[in-house]
Amino acid sequence: MENRRSYRAHILLIPYPSLSHINPLLQFSNRLASKGIKATLATTIFISNTMNLKSSSSSSVHFETISDGFDEGGSKQSPDTTTYLRRLEAVGSKTLAELIERHEYSMHPIDCIVYDLCMPWVVDVAKEFGILGAAFATQPCTVNFLYYCLHRGLLKYPFSSNQLSIPGLSFLELNDMPCFHFVGRLRLEVLEVLMKQFSNVEKADFLLVNTVYGFEKDTICCVVDSMSKLVTNLLTVGPTIPSIFLDKRIKDDNEYGVNPITNTISSSSAICSDWLNKKPAGSVVYVSFGSTPYLKSKQMEELALGLKNTNFHFLWSVSASEHSKLSTKFLEEISDNKSGLIVKWSPQLEVLSNEAVGCFVTHCGWNSTIEALSLGVPMVAMPQWTDQTTNAKLIEDLWKVGVRVGVDEDGIAMRDEIEFSIREVMEGKRGRQMKLNANKWRNMAIEAISQGGTSDSNIDEFLSKLTCF
User: Fold this and answer.
1) Range of the domain at 211
2) Are the C-beta atoms of 159 and 236 separated by less than 8 Å?
3) Is 164 exposed, middle or buried (0-12, 13-18, 19+ CB in 10 A)?
4) Of these residues, 111, 116, 176, 387, which one is catalytic?
5) For the whole model, what pTM was predicted?
6) Mean of pLDDT values over 16-42
């Protein structure tokens, strides 16, 4: 029985209620459970009711719920972002405290809470109960350091070129800084959330980062030096992607384990795999802009034509909400010549690991970026907002595994620029070197999470210190 099982410790993990934040923390839960930890992932009631959550058969992650105050509709039920975040904190704090209390006198009381850095209030609840708190950053160290500098007033928004001399960030130029081109109130709301991540980080006993030490070692050294008075235990623990794609040490850990409750997932996965398996190695361009994509109609048109003009096969994941932006003529043409496959959802890790894929046209969200790095796939970078512009800089100039597409004065990447960038990665002289570089980072990612690697050792250090507090 579960209550007779011996665990090293009980860790509760709380992601921000968004798919891109849940995925890495569920995978980190699997990793902890594989090391003898009782790992419990707590999502909101709405997420629990609308998503299939599962762990690998060997790790057996447990699941609990807290409330964000919008149990029927989540954030979409709220009139605006500020209202949602305030309600999430108020109701979330109360229901989290109740969850802790339920476990307090059980066989396995909670020893530590690993919480998304976007929810800094969680550590306050943890400390009320005398529980250790570990902040978990779902973004790379470079981006975390930028937001930390914004919070501390070392950087000010709007950014200016004379600010960019901070050690660890001096390689960035003005157009590499996080982009907040929202209208009015939304821009202020997003900025507030990102800056508040570090509002009480000194209360956390650990800061865990979903990156690989070797990916950002120079920046990490600067971050550790600058934040040493606030954070004493900064540890890189990534990449947090299923074990089957990396070290293969966790049995049946072959997907993220978070999917919408729908019947279309398995059929879409089979369609993508069957289509890719009939294509030559390195011949396909994969296109996806993440779990919450939004491209202007003009940008969708230019991207469609740029893809078509390359004459490469392409697999494009276009959400149902974006599909209407594709012209009937374009859809008919690719159907007739069988040059492309458009799906509403794609199993991204399976796609990126398929040998038919030669490059990845991406929005440069961190999950997509670290997946491509870990699977050795070169990228065509088309960043849209927030940290994506910074990630694009790292892709092109630090890791040298991609090309950033140029944009016009309206921020639109035109078809010729898109075509040129794809061709450069797929068949250009630079593209050959990018493939070699991509393979180097892939090997580094596998080594980091394998036994004795930097991330594996950091996770062991985290658990060792946790049991000694």
Assistant:
1) 2-255+449-468
2) no
3) middle
4) 116
5) 0.95
6) 96
